[in-house]
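Support case: flavin-adenine dinucleotide complex. Customer-provided input:
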Amino acid sequence: MNLEEYSGIWVFLEVKDGQIAPVSLELLGAGRQMADKRGVPLAGLLIGEGVASLAEMVFPYGADEVYLYDEEIFRDYRTESYMRAVLECVEKHKPEIILYGATSTGKDLASAVATDLQTGLTADTTMLDVNAETGLLEASRPAFGGNIMATILCKKHRPQMATVRPKVMKALPPDPNRTGQIIRETIELREEDIRTKVLEIVRETKEKVRLDEADVIVAGGKGLGSREGFELIHRFAEKIGATVGASRDAVEAGWIDHQHQVGQTGVTVTPKVYFAIGISGAIQHIVGMQNAGLIIAINKDPEAPIFQSSHYGIVGDAFEIVPILMEAFQKMPD
Ligand code: FAD
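Agent response - structure generated as follows:
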């Protein structure tokens, strides 16, 4: 493989509910910095039906170009059709790097593309950089159960690829004066060539917990002792209008649903305030909440690692401290 042939940084632009998904805009922010460092263009790859008008929207966020596949066959996401578009576009334009959101669509597509191209893919990357001279993507993520941060390189294959979770990178403030070029692509793909058919889209009716959008999170861990003990977290959250979060151990104990889990195998959150109550502060939890504006930990063990990642720490029994806090909030004017 001639690595020199590959140039330019791409972001897969995911479309969700008729809009560009926020994670794609965040990746354009990260991609812009790397493209500037390398002196190469930053492109978006937009696939869908009736999505042409969205292409223009990404230029203010840093893209120089958008490769656009706008065809009926791309109405619904299907691995086979989307993967074919990405593979053809890669073959034709040879990017050095492609970034995807670590969403269910992004993860599915990236892994299918990586397998076909026999190239490397770093999943759930938490930091991205590029070596200006060699062009090597430096994709860092927790490894070995979160005990170390590993920086993963893909030295012999192109494109280099990574998925990044929502809210890990920052979108650039949109610059309305930035414009770019839309490159329309077509594909010879017939419905009969695709084995998967979307018969119906059924939306989950269970109310979705929007931890990633919450301003205040009260998270509880194994230190609450039992399902009944965990009720304290719900009561506190309700009192202060917060969303409930949890450690994996609290989820695995069956005290709360997995959609509340914060961390490496849960959700990455960036609230203004994060209460960590009865949570020890394992690295897998910390990576999911370390970017919160203000972290307040309550733990009865003064040596608990959570205190190293907190702005304020209260050493004590949650069942004594939390009621005091609730009373104090009660007395505060609205
Ligand atoms: P513990 O570690 O048991 O901590 C309980 C804490 O409560 C202790 O610090 C204790 O001092 C304190 N405590 C006890 N009683 C009280 C009391 N009455 N008042 C106040 N404090 C008290 N974990 C996650 O959270 N999210 C993830 O996404 C995640 N992903 C993982 C992925 C992998 C591959 C692996 C290997 C692990 C992952 N984990 C994750 C698990 C993680 O390593 C820890 O096991 C987990 O976070 C511990 O949960 P905890 O802090 O609730 O429990």
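The two ends are 64 Å apart (CA to CA).

Case will auto-close in a few days if no follow-up is received.
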